[in-house]
Amino acid sequence: MSNAVKNVRNIVDADTGKKANVSKLMRNPLYAEMIIYFIVFLLAVVTIVPILNVFAQSLSPAHVISRIPFMLWPHEFSIEAYRYIFNTPALVHSFYVSVCVTVVGTTLSLLVTVLAAYGLSKTHIPGNALLMKFFVVAMLFGAGIIPTYIVINKLLGLINTYPVLVLPYIASSYNIILMRNFFWSIPAELEESATIDGASDLQILWTIILPLSKPAIATIGLFYAVGHWNDFYRGLIYINDSSMWPLPMMLRSIVVDNQMVGMGSVPDEQQRMINPDNIKAATIIFATVPILCVYPFIQKYFTQGIMIGAIKG
């Protein structure tokens, strides 16, 4: 009996010791910060190292890549792969298509999202709760690939056209609800005072709500821009002509399928300096850098936009 009591006491003491260690860790924020920084450092290494490897391969000649498959900096610096890309009409055209789709799609998506969210934020409007339920159901359940394709093909007739890359996915229910919650966080007294001064709903939205909503607009605009830029699903399903492909589809064809549809052959003088691995690496950088350049301009709004839109709702 005494042995059993001793075992129970040992278990209790061990559990108490663990709780004391956890309590000590919580009381000393230095340990917690060290652990957090170490985890962030590992995540940064896992993220940056592959990018550096691809970037170094894109700036190295073919014989170096075959000899050194993994590198963090270019060996025998060469820009022949980028010269080939910019001299290839198919890649340049796909880049132009992606830029147009991203700019036009993000603009239209933000317009629809702001107008829908502003209407949903007015809970006194009749039918507001029913409309909100429709958006929630649309966010949780999708129509499926086949019904969506039938609607786009038979009803809208958008197959093999550029609008199919934007119009069928012009707005996201999740982003609309996020923007609506942000509008809720704006004091109602501002709108009431503007209404007393004779301002219409559109004037209130343009002069009061939108200037105060820059963090949310920048955040959701980033979501839409990244989605339009990186999406290859629409080009894969709805675009049959390879000359109309956006850049993600061209990138997929080169990197995944190992095909260079419509890109032409590599000239003899360039074959000594580049190979498919060079072109793959350069194409990845070519498709990644433009969207990365957007982040620094809206990073200051990102955290604020997410937090304010998620707190109240």
Short description:
The protein contains 16 helices and no strands. It has 313 residues and is mainly alpha-helical. Mean pLDDT is 77; it is low at 5-15.
Could you please describe the fold and organization of this structure?
With 313 residues, this protein is an all-alpha fold. It has two domains: 2-58, no CATH class; 86-311, MetI-like (MetI-like fold). The chain has 16 helices and no strands. The protein is globular.
Q: Kindly, what is the distance between the CA atoms of the first and last residues, rounded to a whole number of angstroms?
A: 58 Å
Contiguous runs where pLDDT drops below 50 for at least 5 residues: 5-15
- Which class do the helix and strand fractions yield? mainly alpha
Count of the separate structural domains: 2
What name does CATH use for the topology of the largest domain? MetI-like fold
Mean pLDDT: 77
Name of the top-level CATH class of the largest domain? Mainly Alpha
CA-based gyration radius: 27 Å
* Number of beta-strand segments: 0
Shape: globular
Keyphrases for this structure?
single chain; 313 residues; mainly alpha; MetI-like fold; 73% helix
Record the SSE blueprint:
Elements: H1 2-27, H2 29-58, H3 62-67, H4 80-86, H5 89-120, H6 128-140, H7 145-156, H8 173-184, H9 188-196, H10 201-212, H11 214-230, H12 233-238, H13 247-255, H14 268-271, H15 276-292, H16 295-311
